[in-house]
Design goal:
Layout: H1 6-19, H2 26-47, H3 51-60, H4 66-72, H5 91-102, H6 104-114, H7 123-126, H8 130-135, H9 142-160
Length: about 170
């Protein structure tokens, strides 16, 4: 993982957990955040696989959360300084992460696309236990995630599809 992506991953995971919060106390919040971070990390590795991709993101900027908030009907507080982190949210990563959180089979396919020795790193995303499931009930609810999922689901599916031009 390129360290240049850390602020984008953190902000995007934070947006997901604030938009689809954990149910329960501090432990539930931590489990929910871990699942969101794992999903966003997988999405980031798929979307920005090289150092050049990460550098281009840092030049162009991730875009912010405005469209995501509009689509989900969120109403962030008016204090722009308190929410400057929202400018680091990457809409595509949020959408791809939502796809992975809502669909365990797609999450497994995405983690497999990253290469060897990654499934254990993403255990909470791939095989959440009962407590993880309760903690992130809203974060993993397909109907609630649908507005975010549909934004960029097609591009994720295209990214994960086998490339027929390489088969000979």
């Amino acid at each position: 993982m390129h360290t240049d992506l850390s602020p984008v991953i953190a902000a995007t995971a934070q947006w997901l957990t604030r938009s689809f919060p954990a149910s329960g106390g501090a432990l539930a919040s931590a489990r929910c955040e871990a699942q969101a971070r794992q999903a966003v990390t997988v999405a980031a590795r798929l979307r920005y696989p090289t150092a050049m991709d990460a550098a281009l993101l840092s030049l162009a900027g991730p875009g912010g959360s405005a469209r995501l908030e509009w689509v989900t009907g969120a109403d962030p507080d008016g204090d722009a300084d308190a929410h400057a982190w929202r400018t680091w949210v990457d809409e595509v990563l949020a959408s791809w992460a939502a796809c992975l959180l809502a669909d365990p089979e797609l999450a497994s396919l995405a983690v497999s696309a990253l290469g060897a020795d990654t499934p254990a790193e993403f255990r909470r995303l791939l095989v959440p236990d009962e407590t993880d499931g309760r903690s992130a009930a809203l974060l993993r609810h397909p109907d609630l995630l649908a507005p975010v999922v549909t934004l960029h689901q097609a591009s994720l599916l295209t990214r994960l599809a086998p490339d027929p031009t390489l088969a000979a």
